[in-house]
Amino acid sequence: MGGRMHSHESGNAVAGPGVGPSKTSASSFEASQEGRNTIILKWNEFEFLMQYFDSDITRSSRRHFLASNAMGLGGVALAWLLKQDGALAETGPPELEPQVFDTLPKQPHHEPRAKAMISLWMQGGPSHHDMFDPKPLLKKYDGKPFPGEIKYDNAAQASSKVLASPWKFSPRGECGMELSELVPHLGEVADDITLIRSMHTGVNNHGQSIRALNTGRILAGRPTLGSWLVYGLGSETQSLPAYLALVDPGQLPVLGVENWSNGWLPAIFQGTVVRPKEPRILNLDAPAHLQGAPQKRALDLLRRINERHLDQRPGQLDLQARIASYELAARMQSAAKVALDISQESKAVHELYGINEPATRDFGTRCLIARRLVERGVRFVQVFTQNQFWDHHGAIISKLPSACKKVDKPSAALVKDLKSRGLLDSTIVHWGGEMGRLPVIQNDAGRAKVGRDHNTYGFSMWVAGGGFKRGCVHGATDEFGHHAAEGKVSHSDYHATVLHLFGIDHAELTYKRNTQELTLTDGQDCRVVTELLET
Amino acid sequence: MSDVKNCYGLPAQDGLIMPRATLLLLTLLLPASFVAAAEADAPLTFEKHIRPIFKEKCFHCHGEDEEIRGSLDLRLRRFLVQGGYSGAAIVPGNSQESYLLQRMRDGEMPPPEAGQPVPKEQLDLIARWIDAGAPTERPEPEKLAPGMLITEEDRNFWSFQPVRRPEVPVVKQQDLVENPVDAFILRKLEANGLSFSPPADRRTLIRRAYFDLVGLPPSPEDVERFEQDDSPEAWSQLIDRLLDSPRYGERWGQHWLDVAGYTDSEGVTNADTERKWAWKYRDYVIRSFNANKPFDQFVREQLAGDEMVQPPYKNLSPEDIEKLTATGFLRTAPDGTASKAVEAGVARNQVIGDTVEIVTSSLLGMTVKCAQCHEHRYDPIPQADYYRIRAIFEPALDWKKWRTPSQRLISLYTDADRQQAAALEQEAKEVLAERSKKQSEFIEKVFQEELAKVPETEREAAKNARETPAKKRTAEQKKLLRKYPSLNVSAGSLYLYDRKAADELKAMAEKAAEIRAKKPKEEFIRALTEVPGGIPETFLFDRGDFEQPKESVEPAGLTILEEVTGDAAIPKDNPDLPTTGRRLEYARYLTSGKHPLVARVFVNRVWMHHFGQGLVPTAGDFGRLGTPPTHPKLLDWLAAEFVRSGWDVKQLHRLLMKSATYQQALRTESAHQEIDPDNNLYGGARLKRLEAEVLRDAILAVSGKINDKPFGPPIPVMADRVGQWVIGIENLNAGRPGPVIPMHGKEFRRSIYVQVRRSRPLAVLDTFDRPKMEPNCEQRTSSTVATQSLMLMNGKFVLSQSLHMADRLVAEVGDDSAAQVRRAWNLVFSRKPTPSELEDAQAFLTAQTEDLKARAGKKDDPARQALASLCQVLFSSNEFLYVD
């Protein structure tokens, strides 16, 4: 709730909440280039508005207009325009400055590797034993008692019997990454990804672990990673929301709308949901029956009514600005429409993502939309599987393969597609859920019914692009795959590393709320895991 | 604890309250007003032109702090000549030789890490002053106490002068003057060769009056009646009627809740805990405005209502309850002190700081909070003054003997209520005891029956096993009980054996619950009261850090005002009162009629809400960084008149609204726009966009769905399926929204009754600039952004209300499209459509219906959807969003 900049200095009064000026001279040149683009971008928007104004308006009225209307469009442009008018003092009084929040691009702390991120969120806990983390020892103990301590979540159905993976692992790619036959397509991009086999959050339920990985802490109410990124860096586009959540047509994931919450950050940093049905983006899209011609007709009538009204009130800049803002809104609306329209993609692309196959149609479509959004300057996209999709407490032997079938091909396609478009270098792809599973059987009620219980002490996820290593396996669990044993990566390590790739020092990206200076990693013991990064 | 590095002297807590518009005005206007000297030909003097620059940039290290850096004190001209360790700072008559100026020109002073360099124009000003021999306005004082020096210029500042009722000026066009307001306004217009715009038409006037006073549009019938009423009293009768409406308090209460920082949640923590009883203060404010409570009394109750009531606040009369509820004003600051997430000292002092900020910004219109860590940079407010004001509140907000929000609640239970509740509880307990006894008997009976079924050889052992506590049972015993599971009869499983017995027990439990339900409902007030048991001492905190207390200070008002108000000291303890009486005394001091700020600040706010801009455009800053009044004499005349009227708020509305100034049409003449582009001279009305709440309420009023039930607990806000904050009762399942719970029309209550939860800003209000309370808001902004347009084009609220309005039109005028359009125009714009508008709208309806028919599903009604589409266009139009 801080919301107000508190500085006596006027120099960066309009810099917004960004992560501030660059620290090294080498990158500060880059940054200032970036800054200039910002202004140009905003200037276009203003030009757009200004074309509606009489050319002979006085400076003073123009200032009045800017003062009363421009703030919502962002402080940078305002300051720039006022400077043009000579209205902004070189230095002024102390800045008793309310902080202006916007999604204009901000300078990172250091030169970034990544500009955008797509997170494929596998809610429920994909079984690392069966997909990513082969454990030959489990074969030896298959069906026998587990020779150690197990942290069970569901004691009622717990069994200490080891369950060896029924699926074959083999080395994939030139790097020889061992992956199971359940993810054949992932194998095709093994040389492009980093597989982390040593994830750890250490809290044994979905909600808490989702929060840890999404917001840094297990408690509700904090902003998500996407909100922090947009708060810190803004967005490269002002025609689309900066942070989008692509939800499954089935159910929302556990925790529902918390998954894209801005927490206590200002509401403009909340994730915007792309719905599976019309209107795809609430407020941005018209309801189905009004889309297209009917809405256009309504906007035309509105314009005529507004112009007649303005004719009787000449010189009222607020009214002109309001008329223009409808044009801007309509432009944003069509930009979103285009971004979501995959019919513009080639047949080959549709095939790559599996859009023509029933099993992969939905997830493939959403992965492709994610690429189209990032291509258009969106900062953060998260694609969600439906509620507890990977939560295989029972019948894992039949359910896991069908889950993999739904996401494997589209996920790999996303990596391939980004790579072929030259976007992978600057786009992080993340694939993972909030936990893995136990090496032992849950629900020991016959082969067809066995499952595995939760495990947040050691699990796998993969990342690619944006400066992550290619063809790399990082860390390891113990010989049974229960606990992360080598190169342990906590949720905070992961956050610090992602922010680092975006050019942000995790401890320096702060938000002031009452007396507190808050961060994503929240003072937890963590580090940038440099072993994951390309040099 | 304060982060001095970030703050550069200002308190590290939340930034200064300063609405956007204010700030912008500052940015725009300051360079000119701040260095007023630059443009004037009058000789430069230290006091008028040079000192303000040093005060802003240098005094912190060179004069006002304990340690004088480099032994150079810049507070007097003679100290400059005298110099410090590096010799003379200036050589009068020779700026080239003046070391101070060299250091400043080289960018060494102020040190870059301490602040922005002094701009070139100001350096040139200093040079010119030195070259002119460095004159002063008057002889400098012989002696200077350490710390802040309050100068003649400070004392002469306009807002610190006593309010003197000026003569009403005589103007050329005396016939245009309806009341004294007009004389002041016209005089300045005439001086600029201008006059009033023509009077507004009746239709414009009634809309303006409705939106201003009740925040709702007039009904077509109201408009028609007013247009046809030729009596000279029509306007004044309309104003009276609106002032008498219960809707008036809802509109003007919101203005006050803004400056009070009203919310329904504590903020600070992730959980953003709800303030379950805050609404009683909201209702108090609405009722006070409706009752036209004299403003001085209103202020006194809010600052010290508790000190007017005899502790221990039990068996309260309605009057007592009202006074205690009023102190909710001092309980609006964000409060995280119930949580362990923030360190206690930090959290508590933050609540105190925010409360002081709310009080001083709302009532004094000064940025007193800037003096929390150091002497105020611009206004003559020493740091000690800040802590003197804090001392007024410290007996109730004692950070060493803190009370969390729930500990501060006052129960409205009377002794009679308590007795009645205790008697009922006793009765319920008796029923439950009886039930418990019966239950044991039933279980024992069943057990004996089951035991009888066990073979006799094992019977005794089984009986022993069951009588042994579960944890102490041997393996043998456990085995035995597993063998005969039916022996495990318990309270939970009794029903499986003996349904009749279980039903009997259930009936008894229900009876007990019924008895408990008869207890009187316990309600609470969120109040501020003193913490008994000793009066805390207040210390000045070095750099605002509560861990670095310095000298102790005594309660008092602002020092700078003492010449006008008389002694500002507040007695530490009033022996005639059970409390210290500090807040009561301060409240009396503020409302004595002598205080130069309280009345000015309030009448300025009322003016601002009627005219779209304050006479002092920076309504929250009457200090040197604020914008001076455009009409200082009018401001004083209004303040004097307001106090003379007995602080009569409704009378003030009448005065302003009956002026010709208020009744003008919108400015359209180009002469006005050229000479006075910002309409600072009031030569015509100012266009005002509907505020967020007014927009929502107006749409509900026009659609016919508005529910005008007043008062009570807030209407809740929840996340919808995509996470937007909408009105609704939260119904989560594993964090996911479950089925929507019907609200039976509560969702259509006026916006002032919707929950203001800090972490859940209602989307439709947030988008239209409803302020965040950080900790309060003295002046709203009005933005024009595309997200607003998108919400009007596609937002669910507008879409659904458009359908409601379409249904209303059909219900009222039937299917005839011309009648529908006429009625719609009357409802939304308070006027008839022009023939071309009528034709245009009808053509729209036809075409839209055709188009929608082509895409209609089975359940759709294209004609209704087309009519709704028209209604939506009207809701989105400028004529609806703006008031002339």
Detail the topology: elements first, then pairings.
The complex is a heterodimer of chains A (535) and B (884).
Chain A: H1 25-50, H2 59-69, H3 75-84, E1 116-121, H4 128-131, H5 136-141, E2 158-162, E3 169-172, E4 177-180, H6 184-188, E5 193-200, H7 206-215, H8 225-233, E6 243-246, E7 272-274, H9 293-311, H10 317-340, H11 347-352, H12 358-375, E8 380-384, H13 396-420, E9 427-432, E10 436-437, E11 440-442, E12 454-455, E13 459-464, E14 472-474, E15 476-477, E16 484-486, E17 489-490, H14 491-501, E18 511-513, E19 516-518
Parallel strand pairs in A: 1-8, 1-9, 5-14, 5-17, 6-7, 6-8
Antiparallel strand pairs in A: 2-11, 3-4, 5-13, 9-13, 10-12, 15-16, 18-19
Chain B: H1 4-7, H2 20-34, H3 36-39, H4 46-57, H5 77-82, H6 99-105, H7 120-131, H8 152-155, H9 180-191, H10 202-213, H11 220-228, H12 234-244, H13 246-260, H14 279-290, H15 295-304, H16 318-326, H17 344-364, H18 383-393, E1 409-411, H19 415-452, H20 456-467, H21 475-483, H22 494-497, H23 499-517, E2 524-526, E3 538-541, E4 549-553, H24 562-565, H25 582-590, H26 598-611, H27 632-644, H28 649-657, H29 670-675, E5 688-689, H30 692-703, E6 717-719, E7 725-727, E8 732-733, E9 736-737, H31 763-766, H32 786-794, H33 796-813, H34 817-829, H35 835-854, H36 862-875, H37 878-881, E10 882-883
Antiparallel strand pairs in B: 1-2, 3-4, 5-10, 6-7, 8-9
Helix pairs in contact in B: 4-7, 10-11, 10-12, 12-28, 13-14, 15-16, 15-25, 19-23, 20-21, 26-27, 26-28, 30-33, 32-33, 33-34, 33-36, 34-35, 34-36, 35-36
